[in-house]
Amino acid sequence: MQDDSTNSPTGGWSGRFSEPVAELVKRYTASIDFDYRLAECDITGSIAHARMLEACGVIAKADLADIERGFAQIREEIATGRFPWSRDLEDVHFNLERRLTALVGDAGKRLHTARSRNDQVATDVRLWLRAAIDEIITLILDFQGALLTLAEAHAATIMPGFTHLQVAQPVTFGHHLMAYFEMSARDRERFLDCRRRVNRLPLGAAALAGSSYPIDREQVARELGFEGICGNSLDAVSDRDFAIEFVAAAALLMTHLSRLSEELILWMSPRFGFIRLADRFCTGSSIMPQKKNPDVPELVRGKTGRINGHLVALLTLMKGQPLAYNKDNQEDKEPLFDTVDTLTQTLRIYADLIGGIEVNAERMRAAAREGYATATDLADYLVKRGLPFRDAHEVVARAVRHAETKACDLADLSLVELQSFSPIIDGDIFAVLSLEGSVASRKHAGGTAPEQVRAAIAAARRQLGL
Ligand code: ARG
Known about the structure:
Blueprint: H1 23-29, H2 32-35, H3 39-55, H4 61-79, H5 92-104, H6 106-110, H7 117-153, E1 158-163, E2 166-172, H8 173-198, E3 200-201, H9 217-224, E4 228-229, H10 233-238, H11 241-268, E5 275-276, H12 295-319, H13 333-355, E6 358-359, H14 361-370, H15 375-384, H16 389-405, H17 415-419, H18 429-433, H19 435-440, H20 450-464
Parallel strand pairs: 3-4
Antiparallel strand pairs: 1-2, 5-6
Helix pairs in contact: 3-4, 3-7, 3-9, 4-5, 7-8, 7-13, 7-20, 8-11, 11-12, 11-13, 12-13, 15-16
Arginine (ARG) binds at residues 31, 35, 91, 117-118, 121, 325, 327, 329-330.
């Protein structure tokens, strides 16, 4: 990045100023250090704009040819790291336009006809975000594929299901994983839905009021693959709600991944010992040689706070702005870029991390046997034999208290012992008290029975084409 005040002092507005901008102010107001990432979108948008200007008779054929040639060279310069970025030129738009003019002369100066940086930047951000959403959707699919594979392998692996982090009822590990699949499916829908509103063209709004040239906004929209144009010029240049709703969707996805992370951290702690993460996702301790730390899930949990912060930043950025464009909006980019970077990295790592999970089925099973996880099954058994549920609840509570004094599971009590709590209990109770019997009995849609888990996985695969 050049920082050279012998350059022309600003990109394109210094005509009416009597002294150059203070150095500190220049640095404070410049966005080029981060908005250079919009360069490719800015070029794509500029070429579409120039083609439209030519088609509408606003610029000459020769001008369009010069502009296209100039941008071809600029693309080449950027790709090979030879583009002369300059902080003195404030932002990506001025940097590109100034270079274009240096390369092709007057045609470069004509490009900005019927356009303002206000509609230009709004267009760039939308193009950039649309591509980011498409990548995120693909990465969600990869993550979902990994979840489905692991869930399929463990459709019948029994673990304790928890409420209040206390053992509640047995579930299958596959069922537990499919809960995260459901969350991610909603996340994916949210991004797809948000994309429709991102995918609208602001160009043509110019600074705020529209343009007095005979422009064809629909042509530009078509060329750039937008689903339509923004319907009001003031709104087009000023609102960033599309970015806010994107970050909101990102915050929810990260929140889901953060919950999963919390579980992975618990499950791999020696107290649980349910899973092992592949070593490539863990780190050691510099002082305690025995340690294997779940740094990746911990960071995912931590980075969720950062994305939530970006959401609040963008909402706060917007809330006090009068129509139309204000420079406040320049502050939308860093939170947005960081959200996309964090999300894409996280999803990429998690697809791989899920694929590398090793399950300790014995530890899961042993934990499920520890907390009287089938107590509800005993109550349901009594109800099916005519006892009102509240009475059944009481009978089971007494049986659990008895088992506790013997430090054993309900299934370890003898039939005679069980019958001392209720005479309607029969020998068939042991199938009910078994972990397998418990999960198999929840065989309705959405239940934890292995056959239902497999059905949910098959439906997910069909729906996603995985
Ligand atoms: N760098 C600016 C931004 O990101 C571009 C638009 C500037 N427009 C203006 N009127 N100062 O928002």
